[in-house]
Amino acid sequence: MSARVKWRRFVSNFMLTLTGLCALVSVSVLFLILGYLVFNGGKSINWAFFTQLPKPVGEAGGGMANAIVGSAKLLMAASLLGVPIGFFGGIYLAEFSGSTVASVVRYAADLLNGVPSIVIGIFAYGMVVLPFKHFSTLAGAFALGLMMIPITLRSTEEFLGGVPRYLREGAMALGASKSKTIATVVVPAAYRGILTAILLALARVAGETAPLLFTAFGNRYWSEGWGQPTASLPVVIFNYAVSPYEDWHRQAWAAGLVLLGLILIINILARTILSRGIAVPRS
Amino acid sequence: MKRIAVLVIGVLALGAMIWAQNALLINGAGATFPFPIYSKWFDEYHQKNPNLQFNYQSVGSGAGIKQMTEGTVDFGATDGPMNDDQLKTFQDKRGSGILHFPTVLGAVVPTYNVPGVTGALNFTPEALAGIFLGKITKWNDPAIVGANKGVNLPANDIVVVHRSDGSGTTYIWTDYLSKVSDEWKSKVGKNTSVNWPVGLGGKGNEGVTGLIKQTPNSIGYVELIYAAQNNIPYGAVKNSSGNFVKADLASVSAAAAGAAKEIPDDFRVSITNAPGKSAYPISSFTWLLVPQKFQDAGKREAVKGFLKWMLTDGQNYAEGLSYAKLPKEIVEKEKKAINSIQ
Amino acid sequence: MATVKTTLPNAGPVMGSRSFLSRLRDGDEIARLTTMVFAATVVLITLLLVYELWTGSALARAKFGLHFLVTRVWDPNIDQYGALPFMYGTLVTSAVALLIAVPLGIGAAIFLAELAPPRISDTLQFFIDLLAAVPSVIYGLLGVFIIVPLMRTVIFPALNEPLGFLPLFKGPSYGVGFLTAGIVLAIMVIPYIISVSREVLLSVPRDQREAALALGSTRWESTWKVVVPFAKTGILGSVFLALARALGETMAVTMVIGNTPTISASLFSPGDSIASVIANQFTEATGDVYLQALVELGLVLFLMTFILNGLARILIVVTTQKGSGVPV
């Protein structure tokens, strides 16, 4: 074997090992993050964290119960806004529309998806906070819901489109109208994918902070109803992290662990549902 | 279909249940300067009146004024009193006047993190102006060394830290610098948000304190309690009588002594660089902003009740957190002013 | 079983040619109209958003015109606003992020697409997708408590001592700054580069690789000189996508960039980005011009991400179509 070939072989092995290293580094970052959160946050997770309200500034102790519930309420309301629009809009694209209309809607959804979350916050402030004259859970949910729309829309369209034709034709042959076919045959067949998309959309907005800064604002107490400002996990993490109080730093780590844990669980759940396969066998 | 209907109804029912209001929530936003005592006050007041919740968000005086003007919060808080333009804008937008109620007296201190220095440094007005203008760049500059004989100041670069958000604390600091330095007055001026010649920005008093703690060779300005609670050293400042005074209850109260008798009816006054041998030169009142006319009677009564409590029992909490109590004359004047809230 | 080709007309909406009345009777028309309303809402919301950004910045646009994009001054005291320091900060941090993330990301994608056995490739991709799901504020948390001290104690001395004469690496370092923000952003965008590049590389037809290997090239040579160039438009698309994400990132950046509107050649200097300054100053912008200047910044950011996302999409679609449409 000539020296030239030996050199080329060496370069090949070297570069390929390097790429392996790149992959290793990228993946290990995830575990580093998790490790740090578990290490720093695990110490501070206690019963008080989940059940108590924040204490006055500078005093140790207290918890984030209101932020946890606040985040839950925000996500619930955001889904009520974002999921129906995305879902039914997706049905329209997949089942009823012509191709030009479909591309316009798809384009709008992609545009919305690419808008930086802080700009969505500006929009929600102008649309909900100013007219109603106060910060509210509703305003925060509006901002988050908007961010859920594009993911839900595109995925619904995609998964409905993936339902095999023979299912629809079978229903039609039995005399079902189009809407009945969609409701009883097509959507159930695609439900796994759509559910996955909703879960992923939820996971995406669960961690969003910027749009909540001037919509949900913040609250040191329980937020009642939907018209009052509310604490939320991401915003509290932000405020505590940039503060000088050690106790608040510890709570920020703990909250970070809880938040990330939740998001990762949702993600893993979603992907497992999807990988189990579509509900109907293909021929 | 049925399952979806049940789900929707369940959600709506849940929503209705959560909607049941049994406590009155009063929202406020503003200065970070008095946040430690406000959060203590609101907590104590809530324990005495469980049906009232004062939700105060410490977002900076600038945001407090802005959100009051927009009508998105019920009360505001600021350490930089609203100027006439802002008062007019409020009147135009909200259709009512706005009242300033001093709550406590506080001090803005120069706080720093210099390796090897654990005690209080002395700062002259010229030194402070020079540092924040970016003209004095090293810790061992003669302007600083001259006032601190015997202290070993390193030849390191000074890292200036200021506020990144609109801040009443900034207002107090720049108000003082504008009084003691003509160059500062013409180049930068006084406001809640200025065009800083140098430095890093931290969000809120909290953010600045955090940055100073973590950044060696840094200097910034924060409310006294933030330096005290976090055990970072802060310096003494030369007052108009030529004495180096460190901020504490006595020196802050001394600064307010002169203003006590002559405070204008709307309570807007600046006491920086106040006369007096033992006065701390960077002291200030901090104010709650309350609209003159309330739409909601429940909120109006709640706020009036709180203000009365604040002026009596509330004042007893101030000194524990290193804020000075209001002078008696001002307390009496404010009690009368509360009655003008409709 | 062999699929039987049906001969129904209209492949799309399968029952396109029934009469209006019969459609109405069956509730089809209602279904169509209802879902159409929802779909229209999406378009409406997007249009409304752009409209709000446009009108919400009217005062500022009228006052500053295009000068806004080249003015350095940001002074609320005298109501003078310019976008330049923030555009600079946004672009510099994103550039640093890409400089770090692109080589790492493409390297990892090559490994996952070409070398790793499918099971390992899928598993690793799974973890990388999880990395993409980590919220911004958590990256900010890590940035503040880990990367900032690291910058001050390790990275700055390592770069400044040998290379401090270059304006790029001039001190002093505060821990926060352009480089810190760039590093945090790099970690955030790597997953995007990896997943899209991997997909694009996988879609390169096998015969390309095999032809190269048959001609005697090493694995690396066939990858680097044949497969990657074939996929390069798609990979470029993934870079644009990552860039668009980096430009709009708010929380992680605002916690580690230093929040000072500065334009400086040094990577260690503190600065500010568009998203960060909006987050910091929006709720307190007293005065209409001030607020509208911030909205105008939002508009600028929106346009930047809009253009990039569009380009990215075109590039990715072109490559994947190229890959699947090559005749043997």
Structure explained in plain terms:
The complex is a heterotrimer of chains A (283), B (342) and C (328). Chain A is 76% helix and 0% strand. Chain A contains eleven helices and no strands. Chain A has helices at residues 3-42, 47-51, 65-96, 99-114, 117-132, 137-161, 165-173, 178-206, 210-213, 233-241, 246-275. Mean pLDDT of chain A is 86; it is low at 278-283. Chain B has helices spanning 2-19, 35-48, 61-70, 84-94, 125-133, 142-145, 168-180, 182-187, 204-214, 224-229, 249-262, 297-311, 328-338, and strands at 24-30, 52-58, 75-78, 98-113, 122-123, 159-163, 200-202, 218-223, 236-238, 244-245, 283-291. The longest helix of chain B is centred in the N-terminal third of the chain and has 18 residues, at 2-19. The radius of gyration of chain B is 22 Å and the shape is globular. Chain C is 71% helix and 1% strand. Chain C is built from 13 helices and two strands, in the order αααββαααααααααα. Chain C has helices at 20-25, 28-56, 58-64, 84-115, 118-133, 136-163, 178-202, 206-214, 219-230, 232-248, 251-256, 274-281, 288-324, and strands spanning 74-75, 80-81. Chain C is flat, with a radius of gyration of 25 Å. Chain A binds chain B through residues 55-58, 73, 76, 80, 129-130, 133-135, 183, 217-221, 223-226, 228-229, 239, 242-245, and chain B through 1, 11, 15, 18-23, 25, 27, 29, 35-36, 39-40, 42-43, 46, 53, 55-58, 70-73, 202-204, 206-207, 209-210, 213, 225-226, 229-230, 321.
What is the secondary structure topology, with strand pairs?
The complex is a heterotrimer of chains A (283), B (342) and C (328).
Chain A: H1 3-42, H2 47-51, H3 65-96, H4 99-114, H5 117-132, H6 137-161, H7 165-173, H8 178-206, H9 210-213, H10 233-241, H11 246-275
Helix pairs in contact in A: 1-11, 3-6, 3-8, 4-6, 5-6, 6-8, 7-8, 8-11, 10-11
Chain B: H1 2-19, E1 24-30, H2 35-48, E2 52-58, H3 61-70, E3 75-78, H4 84-94, E4 98-113, E5 122-123, H5 125-133, H6 142-145, E6 159-163, H7 168-180, H8 182-187, E7 200-202, H9 204-214, E8 218-223, H10 224-229, E9 236-238, E10 244-245, H11 249-262, E11 283-291, H12 297-311, H13 328-338
Parallel strand pairs in B: 1-2, 1-3, 5-9, 6-7, 6-8
Antiparallel strand pairs in B: 3-11, 4-8, 4-11, 9-10
Chain C: H1 20-25, H2 28-56, H3 58-64, E1 74-75, E2 80-81, H4 84-115, H5 118-133, H6 136-163, H7 178-202, H8 206-214, H9 219-230, H10 232-248, H11 251-256, H12 274-281, H13 288-324
Antiparallel strand pairs in C: 1-2
Helix pairs in contact in C: 2-13, 3-13, 4-7, 4-10, 5-7, 6-7, 7-10, 8-9, 10-13, 12-13
